[in-house]
Structures are given as C-alpha cells and as structure tokens.
Amino acid sequence: MLAIIGGSGLSGLPGLDVTRREAVHTPYGAPSGPLTLGNFFGRSVMFLARHGDGHRIAPHEVNYRANLWAMRERKATTIVSVASVGGISSDLKPGTIVVPNQIIDYTWGRKSTYFEGDAPVTHVDFTEPYTPELRAQLLAAAADCGETVRARAVYATTQGPRLETAAEVDRLERDGADVVGMTGMPEAVLARELGLAYAAIAIVVNFAAGRGDSRDGIKVERIDDVLHHSMTRVLHIIQTLVASS
Ligand code: HPA
Question: Is it the case that residue 13 has pLDDT exceeding 90?
Fold first, then answer.
C-alpha cells in the first residue's frame, strides 16, 4: 500500500475518503499520530502527518522510527514524503517543486537506525537514498499533469529547529547541496532499513539564508503563502501518481 507522509502545510490528505484511523503502538514508542487509511483516487492509501496534529512536533523531535515502523506494520510498502525546503541554488526559487535524488545528513542525536542493541550489526546500502523507480514514477506523474519540477537535487538535512546562518548555507553549497530541510533524515534511511520504497517531493518555500530575497533574513511569514499555493500542485502530482499506478 502507498503511504504519504505530510510535512509542514499538509496535515491531512484532501481527497482521501477516510475509512479508518489507527493508533499504532510500536517497540520504538508512539508515531506522530494515528494513521489515516482510506481510498484515494481508486486506491487504498495511508496518510500520516509528520509533525502531528496541529504541527506540534519539531523536526528533531519527530519519532521517525515509530512512524515508519507503524506504517510498515499496517502494510505500507511504498512511502512518498512531502516536505518543504529552502532553496540554495539560484534557480531554486520559492514555489519550485523538487524531487531530490541525493541526501547529505547534518543531523545529530536522532535515533537513526533499527539495528542497535541486540539487533545484528547491519550496514544497509544507501548509495541511492531514494528509490529510483518511485522517483521515476513521481517525475512521470509531474510530466503527465504539466508540472515542471527540478528532477534532481541534493537535499541537505540540518538539525533545526533554527534556520541556518548564511555561512552555513555557503558551506552546504560548497558541499554540493541544492536544497536544505530538516526532516529528510533519518526518515529515508529508516525506510531503507525496513525495505520500503521511499521518495520525496519537496516544495522550495524560501531562499535559504543569505540567498536571493533572504539575503538580509528569511521572511518566515511568507512561507505559509508559498506552501499553500504550491501544495495544490504537489497534491495534483500525487493524485496522478496514484491514479496511474
Ligand atoms: N532551512 C531549513 N529547513 C527549511 C528551510 C530552510 O531554509 N525552509 C524550509 N525548511
């Protein structure tokens, strides 16, 4: 079953004909909220709001292990993650939709593996952090609905919850990052450890610190507007993906 993880600006899935809500207990604690299951454009789909009801869970406090465990437990096999990010490269203006293909992880102190304690030491391959077939499906769905998206991007995941300094963004750029967000990891690697297909679709909601119109500071009050406008386009892409598969 396809599962959608909604980030900022997506606390429910419009168009989901809800059949049940399930609070799942996991060995890793509680997920961000109950899983919402239902029919979405002819298919069974599951939804989870990453930041919980009312957006109360900060990126570094999300129980990523419980979220993915719960979804797999309830038969999710494929995860599409929706996220918002800052644009580092000059072409990544607010409103741009990105399907990242790589990750650099700058987070720390997050529970980022299931393989600890008594579990056997296991090193998963993470060369391609996003499932190529699922990325291809997202890109095909975007093309089908006439949306231009950035088809490749390196997603730097920072710890947050504060935004970056301008010098930190310069460093991220030197490292090769195109966009910066706070929730890309450890979500992607936990999905890999559980054998779930995983890809992300991200909305650039602001220029990263020190770039473009964020040169003198990020105007956080503008983020909601961009998010609102672009989310409709992201939802259209996801509907097309679901309807065509
Ligand atoms: N930095 C980190 N995370 C973000 C940003 C940003 O500029 N915008 C949205 N999420």
Answer: yes
